[in-house]
Amino acid sequence: MEPATYAVDPQPTGPPWRLWKEVGADAAARQGVFAPVYSVSFGARNRIVIAPGDSRSMTLIPDKCEGYCRGVDGRAGPNLACEGCGRPVATRMDDCGMWQTVWLEPDAVARRSSGLSAGPPPDWDDLERAEHRVPPVEPDGSWSRRWEAAVGVALAHLVAVTEDRPVSLPAGPVAELLGHAVGRYLPAGPGVRSVGLAGPGIRLPRPCPDVLLVPRHPLTGAPWRPPGDEGAVVPLDSGVWAYLAHPGEISPLPATGVLPEGVLRDDYPLPPRPWCPLTSHHRAFEDTLVRLPAVRAPRLRRYREAYRQAVSPASAG
User: Fold this and answer.
1) Which of 108, 140, 156, 238 has a CA positioned 20 to 30 A from the CA of residue 294?
2) Burial bucket for residue 152 (CB in 10 Å: 0-12, 13-18, 19+)
3) Nearest to 33 by CA among 231, 43, 147, 50
């Protein structure tokens, strides 16, 4: 989370957890999970996530600071208490492989105005601002973690709307950056569905593709839709979408060939370049896919089982 921002997760998150085999498909569906998983969350809905640096007047609860490595993962429930009354009010998460976050319990906190004037809420116009774009490459030359998560979420939606059918991506940044990941998750062959980039500030492709790759609203998270169009859309993180729609710089992918003899470079040090193609975060993909009702269709059930076996043969089934 960026400083001074927050988000609300409408789905149940965190403990208590119950095994799928004990819960059953109907109860799991009521919790927003539509395909078999190891365990289903029966935690609170509408938990609020903030950046740890924005938390105030809270202290760790020592006997609830379990973690797998050198941090805490919230497995035992809220591990932060109010300094004033001692009531558990939030969960700090910062173990290895986790983004550092603080999750506020909705029934333990209340919204109060800070008295400071707030700026205008973000809207579709913000997507055209250069500062809204999220670069795909980190300063150390690795792929952006936000991009990896966003690609995982978008791929789950793409698999669902195409029902595991081949797709063709538009030439340019979309094909260059997403092509490798799409090729790993969707098959090749006949019956190709066309995908196009669409959203505020850019012209809708003609003829209209079968599936539109669109941004989520920067405030509400709702996907953009063309006026009067109810076709298939795949929502994408607004900062990632903004970069694809308005790159504003050279491609982050390595280029073949060399400069002509006698031509000298003047851009040392060279811009960072990842050593491997962009892939999706598999947890983001899996967690999104099981929360889409379409995954209950027979074709997608077979797809998910094949995916699970490919990712973890020993634990599948």
Assistant:
1) 238
2) buried
3) 43
Under 8 Å CB-to-CB from 292, ≥6 apart: which residues?
34, 156, 157, 160
Pairing of strands 101-104, 167-168: unpaired
Give residues with Cβ within 8 angstroms of 111, minimum separation 6: none
Phi, psi of 190 (to 5 degrees): -75, 175
Residue 204 has pLDDT above 70, yes or no: yes
Cis peptide before 16 (omega within 30 of 0): yes
Is 43:11 a contact under the CB 8 Å cutoff?
no
Longest dimension (CA), the chain: 72
Nearest alpha-carbon partner for 243 in 160, 143, 120, 159 = 143
Angle at alpha carbon of residue 48, lines to 46 and 49, rounded to 5°: 135
pLDDT digits (tens, 9 = 90+) for 14-52: 889 999 999 999 999 999 999 999 999 999 999 999 999
**What does the mean pLDDT of the chain come to?**
88
Look up residue 225 and give its two tokens. 């839709």
Instruction: Provide the 10 A C-beta neighbour count for residue 60.
Output: 12
How far apart, in Å, are the Cα atoms of 146 and each of 22, 133, 159? 34, 12, 20
